[in-house]
Write a structure and sequence with these properties.
By secondary structure, the chain is an alpha/beta fold. It is built from 16 helices and 20 strands. It is globular, with a radius of gyration of 24 Å.
């Protein structure tokens, strides 16, 4: 009899513990769901997290704690202070200037020289010229620095600069440059250069930052010269050899505008080193001469900005279009708002052209994009595929008035999750240069062939769409 009572006692304790665990799990899921739904997310991302938490909460919640953060509020407040003296207080003229003032984007700044790199060899030559000509400092912020011949050559050059007493700081993304070993960086470190990892893979995971990647490509020399765009530092981006070549765009500039890029680098470096960024007093350009020839405007986007700067900028530019919209991107997984606006623009008689690689280096992205391309094709958007070659360039051209180039793809990760850097070109000569390059690529393209529809294909696309935000 005593044995039976003890068994019932253990059974009751197990039932109570299970009941308590279920209620605790339900309460935790409720708390995290309410917090998740307060954040502005793409509906597909919210749906994926919702289903995941309801299905396996004890697995989903730790993953959400590691991956779920989309905005770093403290960092965004710091960035507002950094650019406080450079934003427009009383914007006049284009509605875009009013938008930028609200978004906290620095005002346009002048440049004394701007060069667009449409070829890898030109991009490499300008980069090496900047590095070799440095007098005081070299700051590099990059997603991928490869351990190949290009990466080793750059490390050795930077090491020689450090040996000459030049301050060299190298900021690498923790995921993008994960495979780059300490051995490859040793010559630079031994010469006195500094290296930091932006959100390393091995870090305290439950801070929500694991999935935030620094996709920016930026080199600032002596606080007055800038090299930026879409190219990483690896053979396929800089060597220009046919067997490894990726078509891309980058640029360099000199002049006062370089200080905005320097400010951005300093803030990112401070974040990576877990330090407080320095606040520099900056003089805002007078409002009566905001847009002289050869001015550029830095457009940083990501968790360090309170708003989704790049998505809102692209939407505003499309709304301003009257004749033509050109978009170049390696991956195309747009937000629903962007997709709708592109369809409306095409149906309104505006020429909308989308340039993509026929096959990118991300197969999942190629599969997901079809559900969007079918709708765009039906609306009259020209969809052009570059065969055989990988197109890695990112560019937006609106009429002949605006051009934007940089690091951001047209996908959910770049527009709403990554640290990105785009540059808005105001000078018509610079806009025409980008437009001419795009038109040159269009000659080599083939029209997109609509794949046959099937339930299996569309179901697969829908399922992949649920996880595309995190890829």
């Amino acid at each position: 009899m005593l044995t039976i009572i003890e068994e019932w006692h253990e059974l009751i304790k197990w039932a109570l513990a299970t009941h308590a665990a279920l209620w605790l799990g339900a309460f935790i899921v409720f708390v995290f769901l309410s917090g998740m739904l307060r954040e502005r997310r793409n509906p597909s991302a919210s749906a994926a997290w919702l289903l995941f938490m309801l299905a396996v909460p004890y697995v989903a919640i730790p993953l959400y704690l590691a991956l779920g953060t989309r905005k770093l509020e403290a960092l965004a407040r710091q960035k507002q202070l950094l650019f406080a003296g450079r934003t427009l207080q009383t914007p006049q003229g284009s509605p875009l200037l009013s938008l930028f003032a609200q978004l906290g984007v620095p005002a346009p700044a002048s440049v004394t020289g701007f060069h667009l790199h449409t070829e890898a060899k030109a991009a490499t030559a300008r980069l090496l010229a900047f590095i070799d000509g440095a007098d005081r400092s070299i700051d590099i912020e990059i997603f991928i620095l490869a351990g190949d011949a290009t990466g080793r050559m750059l490390i050795n050059r930077l090491a020689r600069c450090a040996q000459r007493g030049i301050r060299v700081r190298l900021l690498l993304d923790g995921v993008g440059s994960f495979l780059l070993s300490r051995k490859h960086l040793k010559p630079l470190v031994d010469a006195g250069g500094e290296v930091a990892r932006f959100i390393p893979v091995l870090h305290v995971p439950l801070r929500g930052r694991t999935n935030l990647r620094n996709h920016r490509k930026l080199v600032v020399v002596d606080e007055k010269r800038v090299w930026s765009g879409g190219r990483n530092l690896a053979n396929e981006y800089l060597q220009g050899e046919k067997q490894t070549h990726w078509y891309d765009l980058s640029f360099d500039l000199e002049g006062p505008a370089a200080l905005d890029y320097q400010t951005l680098f300093d803030a990112d470096w401070a974040f990576a080193r877990q330090r407080q960024p320095a606040y520099a007093e900056r003089t805002m350009p007078s409002s009566d001469n905001l847009l002289p020839p050869h001015e550029v405007q830095i457009l940083p986007g990501g968790p360090d900005m309170e708003e989704d700067v790049l998505e809102q900028t692209l939407l505003a530019l499309i709304r301003e279009a009257r004749q033509r919209i050109l978009i170049v991107t390696p991956y195309f997984v747009p937000t629903e708002t962007l997709q709708t606006l592109l369809c409306l623009s095409a149906r309104s008689g505006i020429q909308v052209d989308l340039l993509l690689p026929e096959k990118s280096n991300h197969r999942i992205a190629d599969l997901v994009r079809n559900r969007f391309l079918r709708e765009l094709h039906k609306a009259g958007v020209g969809i052009h595929m570059l065969p055989d070659d990988m197109l890695h360039a990112k560019a937006w051209v609106i009429d002949d008035h605006w051009a934007v180039i940089g690091s951001a793809n047209i996908d959910l990760r770049s527009l709403q999750l990554n640290f990105e850097l785009m540059t808005l070109l105001h000078a018509q000569a610079d806009v025409v240069a980008v437009q001419t390059w795009v038109d040159t690529q269009l000659v080599r393209t083939q029209p997109w062939q609509v794949p046959p529809r099937s339930r299996l294909r569309e179901t697969t696309e829908g399922l992949l769409m649920l996880i595309s935000f995190q890829l």
